Amino acid sequence: MTPEPRKRLAIVASFSGQGGVERMLVHLIQGFCDQGYAVDLLLVRARSAVLDQLPAEVRRVPLAPGHTLLATVALARWLRRERPPVLLAVKDRAGRAAVMARALARTETRLVLRLGTHLSAALSGRSRLQRWLRLLPIRLLYPGIERIIAVSGGVAEDSARITRRSRSQIRVIRNPVITPALADLAAAPCPHPWLDERASIPTLIGAGRLQRQKDFPTLLRAFRLVRRQRDCRLIILGEGRGRSALESLAQSLDLRLGADGDLELPGFQSNPYCWLARADLFVLSSAWEGSPNVLTEALALGIPAVATDCPSGPRELLADGRFGALVPVGDSEALAAAILQTLAAPLSANRLQQAVADYTQAASASAYLHAMGLETGPPR
User: Fold this and answer.
1) pTM of this structure
2) The three-state (H, E, C) secondary structure of 153-213, written as one string
3) What are the pLDDT digits (tens) for 256-269?
């Protein structure tokens, strides 16, 4: 008997780094494959080691020449030839390209856009002209998108304001953070001596790209204040353009870099979970987020956490502070106090894991399929 062909699902995205968006998309695609879908991944850019983690059966379709707007014509050709019932676009630029490509292709493909950033907060430091240039194409093109998916309630509210669309047209779906592989990755050996089970000095971990959004300078200043009251160490996982400035700030704060010091910046780690699972505390110091995946991962691994009350995501994840302290953005003294308090009286792993029960790969993939109209029953 000939097996029934798998249902196909099309996704357009740009892989240009190794951050949370790329990892979450790989998790989501794996969830779609697990639920019987064959996935066509249309790639504006394909410069990411995370692509190696895609399921082997995913069909990759490069959209030359590698720029979102210039790839619009190639996407239009593909849509005209393949005519998928729905196209999921990941991030704002891919969404705008999808709207223009569908218009060129003259197909009836439904467009669904995933938004993962609190755009108003991200634009807060820009000039009026820069904000206008960023928002104008959104307001012109987004009416052509049938459904918007936001990763948190805060992102949904912000997206409704920016796009001037009804909040009812925007659905919140939690990120597919907790995967079947998470526990095994967390149990893998960790290469750093500070995280050895016999280590007696508490180790704090921060993680993310070394850039303005993550506000690691506030974390360094808070860490210096914490060290005045108790012995501890800090590891910041991640890489980025802000490395040299962060190293200079550490030196000015008399923080010693290296395994013999009290601060480590080991760069990007392909498996951050074996580091995170052995930390005494995770600290999120961001100026803005969408839904912070690494905070979700820390809670899923039972690691206590403190976070800035940034727009948006931490307040939702930590349930207004019930599962971890929330402090004002940029307030190093408040962050230091929260760190000291949490180290002295951490919540149990079981309680922390309750906070992120909805962030599983299977539940997220099912909710996406339902939002895209590919499954008519209630999302699992």
Assistant:
1) 0.88
2) HHHHHHHHHHHCCCHHHEEECCCCCECCCHHHHHHCCCCCHHHCCCCCCCEEEEECCCCHH
3) 999 899 999 999 89
